[in-house]
What does this fold into?
Amino acid sequence: MLNRSHTISISNALRAASSPLSNISRPFTCSPGCSAPKRERRRATPERREYFYHVDIHGQLFLADTEPKNITSCFKNPEFLDFFFKRLGPNRHMSCKPPDSSHLLPHLTSGYRWLSPCGPELNYVSCAPGGTPLVFRDLTSNNLYYAGTLLTPFSPSSLVVDPSTGYLFHPSPAPSAAPSPSRYSLLASGLVLSRLADVLELDLEGPGKGRGESEGGRLVWEGRGYGIGVMKRPVEERVE
It folds into this structure.
């Protein structure tokens, strides 16, 4: 349970994120309780409020009904993004069917398989096909960056590729406030193109052709070569 004096106000974050210019420079504020504009609310009770978000293939976070979804309409406030993704974990209600949780089942069939709670607010999250709810967006000084300013050490020996899409994945960060949303998290295409393209070779025709049976390519990182593993099943199934 969050201390009310330190609970993040989602409404402040939403207002900050509504302007592509102001939401970076405007300070992130805290206030007792969580709230959001009524137009974003889907279901509500006196004890619970529910909101719906979407993470695209580039790791950008949007309210689900935002159109168009692009760089100008995504959330950009680093503090809000850190707060949101630190609490992101699997939607455990997918295996629970008590009477008071039966209303959650439509969320799961609609792809909202992850949850970022904030006090009385339940923030459901979906992701792009073939993607993950958490996406690494930059690689600097052997650290992978995600959310706003969060980072995790880069492990070049732990990369895996989905041969059906060519998407590259890295183990998700260690859990903090919530369990990891999935075992692996996607490396954004911008990261791959800018940081790894010159040192990366993928074999999407199938492992075992000139390499080990479990290798889907090679990465040369800081003068050393690493095999890239092959994802055995679609990443959407890797909810843990």
Observations:
- Confidence is low (pLDDT under 50) at residues 1-41, 95-102.
- The chain is about 15% helix and 30% strand.
- The first strand starts at residue 43 and ends at 44.
- The CA atoms of residues 98 and 224 lie 52 Å apart.
